[in-house]
Amino acid sequence: MWQFAKKVFVCILVVFATSGPCYANSKHNFYVLTLSILSYSKWENVNTPTLCVIDNPSITSTFQSYIQQMSYNYRVQTVNAKDFARSHCQAVYFSTTSPQQQQSLIQSYPYRSLLSLSINNSDCEIGSIFCLYTQNNYTTFKVNLDALSHSKVHIDPRVLLLAKNAE
Length: 167
Hints:
The chain is of the alpha/beta class. The chain has 6 helices and 9 strands. The chain has one domain: Rossmann fold. Helix 4 links the parallel strand 5 (91-94) and strand 6 (115-118).
């Protein structure tokens, strides 16, 4: 059964990889969308994933409020970019770093099971796996399939099925 599921997942990735960048739309804000994506992500031997917000304590505080309101089982903490390689995060949220800085931080992170999300990477060609932005009053995300293929985080294929080709 596992082999069949693995083949289906690979086929889905191939279809999306050959169709260009992937997109999805939602009326929710960045926080709700991020927490929803996290809910479809799985890490080995991790019961309570930690979301690290890079260099932005106010976003960390807002995430904490949403986590409490929505009863999610996540920890969230602010991490300075210079300390990121020494942190223990399952997911990272970038709000002010450039795509090049994101790429550098992700590549220097010693653990490969890292889910990365950004609100400052609209092209989504390097850096984060999920790139969130607002367009026409919708919170939208793109999936960087190359970054996803290098991460060891299991993302439920249903998240990828939410994505669609732009325009």
